[in-house]
Amino acid sequence: MSQLVLLETSLPGLPLRRGKVRDIYDLGDKLLLISTDRLSAFDWVLPTGIPDKGRVLTQIAAFWFEKLGEPNHLITTDVDRMDLPEGADRDPLRGRSTLGRKTGVIPIECVVRGYLAGSGWAEYRRDGTVCGISLPEGLVESSPLPEPIFTPATKAESGHDENISFEQMVEIVGPDVAEELRRRSLAIFQRGSEYARERGIIIADTKFEFGRVDSEIILIDEVLTPDSSRFWPADAYEPGRGQPSFDKQFVRDWLSSTDWDKNSPPPALPDDVVQKTRRKYVEAYERLTGHELPA
Q1: Which of 28, 56, 89, 190 has its CA 20 to 30 A from that of 257?
Q2: What angle do CA 276, 115, 254 make, to 5 degrees?
Q3: Which of 64, 66, 43, 40 is nearest to 53 (CA)?
Q4: What is the sign, positive or negative, of the torsion defined by CA atoms of 63, 64, 68, 74?
Q5: What CATH number is given for 1-102 in this structure?
Q6: What is the C-alpha to C-alpha distance for residues 14 and 90, in angstroms, rounded to an integer?
Q7: What is the pTM of this model?
Q8: Domain spanning 104-236: which superfamily?
Q9: How far apart are CA 83 and CA 27, in angstroms?
Q10: Mean pLDDT of the 191-214 span
Q11: What is the pLDDT of residue 295?
Q12: Where are the domains of the chain?
């Protein structure tokens, strides 16, 4: 197991933007994204991290960037090939750092849903729709949709993203860009889902982010990871109920079982919840890549 990289990283002299779970350093025309082992739930960063979580997310995203062949921001995940400040401690950064091209971020979360789950299931029960898109009657929780649907959202600097209609997306980014992002998001989801299903994972839904470099629109951030997607084990899939998952569901369930009010600093996680959650992240990596997570 690698060193737990939880509270912060330190690269003196580089501008830093610290997100809930990632540290982002500005290298001029490039960005260094470091996936820490911090964990967020219910809009809080928890005081307890999940060992290797950042390494898993970085390596899964790198796997997909290479496999999908989509134009993307990735330059390297090899810290020995990165131009870092003299004396920087590279060891804690190994396996969890992505050097990427800096882009003009397109301010849309490109969400694709293939199954009825989460907020989509709640809306369907109420209105027969998901993000305003009408669906057939008679679907149950976790049902596959007749075909994947594109449900964009606005990117929020804090708090929750807000679902918008495709027409609203057109108003924000223009018709040509909106059509391209919808087409590419659905195509990437289809290709990724087919491969993941062969490896025993159902990708129920996901979100993509895109940016511009000159006139080119490229895939950025992370792609088809357990944090940006809903992963279900195919061998346990059963429509009509919620599904087990390859993410932090153990953490959410444990927090919901406590008397924490979600409005004050959250409690520390017990070791068994930490270890179960780590195992799920690592299992997702190993199923998708066919390799053990490097030590």
Answers
A1: 56
A2: 25
A3: 40
A4: negative
A5: 3.30.200.20
A6: 15
A7: 0.93
A8: ATP-grasp fold, B domain (3.30.470.20)
A9: 9
A10: 97
A11: 77
A12: 1-102, 104-236
